[in-house]
Write a structure and sequence with these properties.
Layout: E1 9-17, H1 22-45, H2 50-63, E2 83-89, E3 94-101, H3 107-113, E4 121-122, H4 124-134, H5 144-155, H6 175-178, E5 181-186, E6 192-198, E7 218-221, E8 224-230, H7 232-238, H8 240-249, H9 254-267, E9 272-278, E10 283-287, E11 291-297, E12 302-304, E13 314-317
Parallel strand pairs: 3-4
Antiparallel strand pairs: 1-5, 1-11, 2-3, 2-6, 5-6, 7-8, 8-9, 9-10, 10-13, 11-12
Length: about 325
């Protein structure tokens, strides 16, 4: 790793899906993503570590009810919210996370606490006990729009268009099943970290575990980091995040690693997306779904993938040191 300061890089996502709800949807999501990009990139410029930047970015995205993580998480089949999140520090090669945790505002904060623990992944009961130990105030992440979605689904007459739940909150069709947030950052010391958080896919069987709490959906090494979104089971079956990262560690440029991995995923009929950064500062993203809600900062410009269409599976921006 270079000892010279490097230009920080940042990419975030707020899920994937089939379509945005018109221009209003694009504008609202872009505003939310760019607000996070601007605050987190300023932290990186001020000397924050990649891990610190990732945690802050995830907190901001979890607090935004437009996204299915933290506040605004979807309800499971029994009407309860259970969230999952994980954090991986590429320099330390350390993964931590929580699975199906409730009554907490920011699940990513629990994942951060567990970075220094002997037991680094906790499920529902263990995470609840950790909340008590840390004396974190309980918090209800439920929003009215998510409750109405669940009630209509339970009644068996759920269509978003007819149920008046599209509005400004439901900006993306089929959002629940693919709703995740993620952040990947490269700091000025050349270190990489990644975090991913989700409310699940909605109305799922109690106890179902998301890819967001697994390395399959959130993985980092010193050479690269990747956060995934989409159908969790598809991401798990592809083992997508480590597949891409290990290809980079083995010498492939990150865009080529994305291209090979997404071609395989497409051939297997998967519905997913991902974002990533490598140690050269190259940024990459990919999707097999119609829409990927992602935004990035190269140090020179801010951009996004909201209106990225067509058959191209992968795109990106070259690094400073490639």
């Amino acid at each position: 790793m270079s000892t010279e300061p490097v230009q920080p890089k940042l990419i975030i996502h707020g899920g994937a899906g089939s379509s945005l709800k018109g221009k209003g949807g694009v504008d609202a999501v872009r505003k939310s993503l760019y607000t996070v990009i601007e605050e987190v990139y300023a932290l990186l410029l001020a000397g924050a570590t990649a891990k610190e930047a990732v945690v802050r970015g995830c907190q901001l995205l979890e607090d935004d009810p437009h996204f299915n993580a933290g506040t605004g998480s979807v309800l499971q089949s029994d009407g309860q919210i259970r969230m999952s999140a994980s954090l991986m520090d590429g320099a330390a090669q350390r993964f931590s996370g929580v699975i199906n945790v409730s009554r907490v505002r920011n699940p990513i904060e629990l994942a951060l606490t567990l970075q220094d623990s002997d037991d680094r992944i906790l499920s529902d009961h263990g995470a609840a006990e950790l909340l008590r130990e840390l004396q974190i105030p309980t918090y209800d992440p439920l929003t009215e729009i998510r409750l109405r979605e669940w009630m209509l689904e339970r009644a068996g007459n759920f269509t978003r268009e007819m149920a008046d739940v599209v509005a400004e909150h439901e900006l993306i069709e089929d959002n629940a099943g693919r709703g995740t947030i993620g952040v990947v950052a490269l700091d000025s010391q050349g270190q990489i970290a990644v975090g991913t958080s989700t409310g699940g896919k909605g109305f799922e069987r109690i106890g179902r575990v998301s890819d967001s709490a697994m390395p399959a959906g959130n993985y980092a090494l010193p050479q690269a980091a990747v956060s995934c979104t989409g159908i969790g089971e598809d991401i798990i079956d592809e083992c997508l995040a480590p597949r891409i990262v290990i290809r980079v560690a083995d010498g492939l440029p990150i865009q080529e690693a994305f291209r090979r991995s997404f071609e395989e995923s497409h051939q297997n009929g998967r519905d997913l997306g991902a974002i990533g950064i490598d140690q050269t500062g190259a940024i990459a993203w990919g999707k097999t779904s119609e829409v990927l809600l992602a935004a990035y900062h190269t140090g020179e410009k801010v951009g996004d993938t909201l209106e990225w269409q067509g058959e191209q599976l992968v795109a990106g921006i070259a690094g400073d040191r490639s």
